[in-house]
Amino acid sequence: MEHDALEQGPIPAQIEFRGVTKMYGAVSAVKDLSLSVPHGEFLTILGPSGSGKTTALMLLAGFVAPSKGDILISGKSVAAVPSFRRDQGIVFQSYALFPHLTVRRNLEFPLEMRGMVAIERAARIDRMLARVHLNDLGDRMPSQLSGGQQQRVALARALIADPPILLLDEPLGALDRNLREQMQGEIKSLHREFGKTTICVTHDQEEALTLSDRIVVMRAGQIEQADTPEALYDRPATRFVADFLGEANILENHDFEVEADVEQPFGSVAMIRPERIGIAAPTAPCRADADQRQSVTGTVEGMIYAGPLRKYQVRVGSSLLVVREQVASGGQIFRPDDAVRLDWLRSDVRIVAA
Ligand code: ADP
Ligand code: MG
């Protein structure tokens, strides 16, 4: 048995992009994209509008053909496989439900396509409707459902034929904030339960951080950086990633010298996250670990109170730093024009490519 396992070699990635380029005229929407996605991973492609996210997904779905390169599923090229035979469930931002069919008929369509008999179809639809909490709505038309309910139907329809791969394009983009958070929880729990290899495309960093095992940040058709949410946030490789994922204080053109634990090569800038900066009155006693910190003095320009967080803008010489602080009861609140001392651990300073 061990011998067999050795002969088979490593399990091929479920999905693999190999040097894929898609040109539209002179524009490369996707440029030399190489990416492996293992079985069961929830991968999010994150990037600004126009960065090539949807094109990457359409290439995988087979709606668009590569200009160069190849896409493999379970180790085999799908270049010659038409989209309807790729066995992928797809959810678009705009729901794309059949408007003239009831919810049940919408769910039935993929099962009919696969030749499942009527009695099995009905049983499976009942189970799926219950799973997405739409038991009583099977006979409604899509126009009689709320946005969140329509998106549940779209998810149910994508999953009902049990495809090994699920593709989501800005699935929550049309929903308001509360509903979006609720649906994020729903998508996460469906992923845990069904374990589908999932590729989700979004421009929403919070969605990406919440849902993903791994995030690919795209910029102008190329991968800028790919890593776990935690690693991307804590160790962004470039200024673009630091700015796009969370908030970043870029420490350049300052009146003070930035002290960092590591050297700052040419073409890079120092960065510190707002929550890594401490704020105190200038007269406050120094911290126990003051020798590991850099401290500067400044003046508060603005304060925003946002639930459990306070966000300060602090003028330090010619630059403005953002400081984010957890609101603790009894903690000191600073007001505009207050003088303050900021400090941070030198080890919290990150060096990123400019
Ligand atoms: P995203 O989903 O990240 O917003 P897209 O993949 O939709 O980005 O688009 C990437 C780039 O390719 C953009 O510059 C866009 O204008 C261009 N593009 C996408 N689809 C087409 C098309 N069908 N024809 C021409 N250009 C396109
Ligand atoms: Mg898009």
How would you describe the overall organization of this protein?
By secondary structure, the protein is of the alpha+beta class. The protein folds into 2 domains: 2-239, P-loop containing nucleotide triphosphate hydrolases (Rossmann fold, 3-Layer(aba) Sandwich), CATH 3.40.50.300; 247-353, OB fold (Dihydrolipoamide Acetyltransferase, E2P) (Beta Barrel), CATH 2.40.50.100. It is 26% helix and 32% strand. The protein has 9 helices and 18 strands. It has helices at 2-8, 53-61, 103-113, 118-131, 147-159, 177-194, 205-211, 229-234, 239-244; strands at residues 15-24, 27-37, 42-46, 68-73, 76-77, 88-91, 165-169, 197-202, 214-219, 222-227, 249-251, 268-272, 278-280, 293-306, 309-316, 319-326, 339-345, 350-353. The strands form 4 sheets. It has a 6-stranded mixed sheet, sandwiched between helices. It has a 5-stranded antiparallel sheet with strand order 13-17-14-15-16, with no helix packed on it. A 4-stranded antiparallel sheet has the order 2-1-4-5, with helices on one face. Strand 1 (15-24) and strand 2 (27-37) form a beta hairpin. Helix 3 (103-113) packs parallel to helix 5. The N and C termini lie far apart (52 Å). The model has no long low-confidence stretch (mean pLDDT 91). The structure holds adenosine-5'-diphosphate (ADP) and magnesium ion. Adenosine-5'-diphosphate binds at residues 24, 27, 29, 47, 49-55.
